[in-house]
């Protein structure tokens, strides 16, 4: 068993030939790892059964599953033993060794077949090789790439300054020109002394490892561990999108490459078609249509405010009259909110008696205000009666205010009877 050795990261089968989709190899070792524990486990019950899953990490003789590195996320795939097929959840690099995380153990010396999730991997290759090309073109303009990120949907390069629209257009044109030129992308393993070691991860053992330089024709040479395309034409197309400022002067320039471009076009075309139907207009009319709707909404809100203040004035007169005659008044507005009740109270001003105001529709949340002499005592009697089941609130003396989590059917009417009894 001890005679089987694993291949170092830098010379993995996927790094030598990034187009391998299926691969036969052997398990070198298998060890247990504790998956992240559930955060819900109570500290007060240390003896409660833990739902932490046990997972395992396999070292293989060689692999076509790329461990996370150089900005490229980990692959995913399937490992098939003579007995069963199991998913490879993630692959990580520990110094020079690729570790494959799996849900069940596989004994050392077991012969296995690996299969990579090719759609995911090819997408990563398009984004990663494309990023090298974008950065190479930016280098010719003396704009260094400070970092990059391969995202689920969009990726970006981080630059020391914001690019002008003209610069973005020029970079995009040049990148697509290089795609059409169909330049060969190839990996060189030069003398270690010639490689810029500043670009290596801190925990990589450069002396025992393999240092690679990825070339795009004669245009670019860049130390990189990633899995790359073999020709720029496989990028299909590069689209530069928006920029987002970061830190004080940096700018993140977002991009899409390869199959992501047509997927994005199809998704956005479908979205535009839905908006065309909902707004009953053509795509080039959408902005004007939305601007008209915004104006309409603004005008409606202004009118609603005006009418609401009219209603408050009229309702205040009725309430004052009721208070004078009966010393009690009840107002329930299913379609109003608390601000309406507050405006009404302000308009009524000082009064003698007891005033109960409620808002909110049945099956919805609402509010309740009790004002006047002994308001707190009356509110307590409402709560005690159980007429409004989900009522909670507080106050003292002449003002009590509460929330109704949900008005139940019949509750507003029952409350009216209770107040006016
Ligand atoms: Zn790279």
**pLDDT averaged residue by residue:** 93
Number of strands: 19
SS summary, helix count = 8
Biggest beta sheet summary: 7 strands, antiparallel
Distance between the termini: 91 Å
Pattern of helices and strands: HEEEEEEEHEEHEEEEEHHEHEEHEEH
- Strand residue percentage: 25-35%
- The class by helix and strand makeup works out as alpha+beta
**CATH architecture assignment name of the largest domain:** 2-Layer Sandwich
Looking at CATH, which topology of the largest domain would you report? Threonyl-tRNA Synthetase, Chain A, domain 2
Give helix % range: 25-40%
What is the molecular shape?
elongated
CATH class of the largest domain: Alpha Beta
Question: Could you say how many structural domains there are in total?
Answer: 3
Rg over alpha carbons: 34 Å
Strand arrangement across the biggest beta sheet: 4-3-7-1-2-6-5
Bound molecules: zinc ion
Uncertain stretches of 5 or more adjacent residues: none
Could you name the CATH homologous superfamily of the largest domain?
Threonyl-trna Synthetase, Chain A, domain 2
């Amino acid at each position: 068993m001890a005679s089987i050795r694993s291949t170092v990261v830098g010379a993995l089968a996927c790094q030598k030939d990034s187009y391998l989709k299926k691969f036969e190899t052997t398990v070198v070792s298998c060890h247990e790892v504790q998956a992240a524990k559930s955060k819900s486990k109570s500290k007060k019950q240390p003896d409660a059964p833990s739902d932490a899953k046990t997972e395992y990490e396999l070292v293989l003789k060689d692999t076509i599953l790329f461990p996370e590195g150089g900005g490229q996320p980990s692959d995913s795939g399937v490992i098939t033993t003579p007995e069963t097929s199991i998913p490879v959840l993630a692959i990580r690099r520990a110094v020079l060794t690729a570790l494959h995380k799996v849900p069940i153990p596989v004994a050392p010396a077991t012969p296995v077949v690996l299969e990579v999730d090719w759609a995911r991997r090819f997408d990563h290759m398009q984004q990663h090789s494309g990023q090298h090309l974008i950065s190479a073109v930016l280098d010719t303009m003396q704009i260094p790439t400070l970092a990059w990120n391969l995202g689920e949907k969009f990726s970006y390069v981080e630059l020391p300054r914001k690019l002008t629209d003209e610069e973005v257009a020029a970079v995009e044109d040049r990148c697509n020109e290089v795609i059409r030129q169909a330049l060969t992308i190839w990996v060189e393993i030069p003398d270690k002394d010639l490689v810029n070691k500043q670009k290596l991860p801190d925990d990589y053992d450069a002396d025992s490892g393999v240092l690679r330089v990825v070339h795009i024709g004669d245009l670019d040479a860049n130390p990189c561990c990633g899995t790359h395309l073999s020709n720029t034409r496989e990028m299909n197309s590069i689209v530069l999108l928006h920029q987002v400022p970061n830190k004080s002067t940096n700018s993140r320039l977002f991009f899409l490459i390869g199959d992501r471009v047509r997927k994005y076009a199809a998704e956005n075309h479908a979205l535009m078609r839905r908006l065309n139907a909902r707004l009953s207009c053509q795509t080039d009319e959408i902005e004007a249509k939305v601007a008209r709707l915004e104006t309409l909404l603004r005008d409606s809100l202004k009118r609603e405010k005006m009418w609401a203040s009219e209603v408050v004035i009229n309702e205040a007169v009725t309430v004052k009259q009721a208070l004078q005659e009966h010393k009690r008044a009840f107002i329930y507005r299913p379609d109003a909110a608390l601000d309406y009740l507050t405006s009404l109270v302000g308009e009524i001003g000082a009064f003698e008696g007891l005033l109960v105001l409620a808002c909110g529709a049945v099956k919805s949340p609402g509010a309740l205000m009790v004002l006047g002499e002994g308001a707190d005592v009356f509110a307590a009697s409402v709560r005690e009666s159980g007429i409004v089941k989900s009522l909670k609130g507080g106050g003292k003396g002449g003002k009590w205010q509460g929330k109704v989590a949900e008005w139940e059917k019949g509750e507003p009417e029952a409350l009216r009877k209770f107040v006016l009894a």
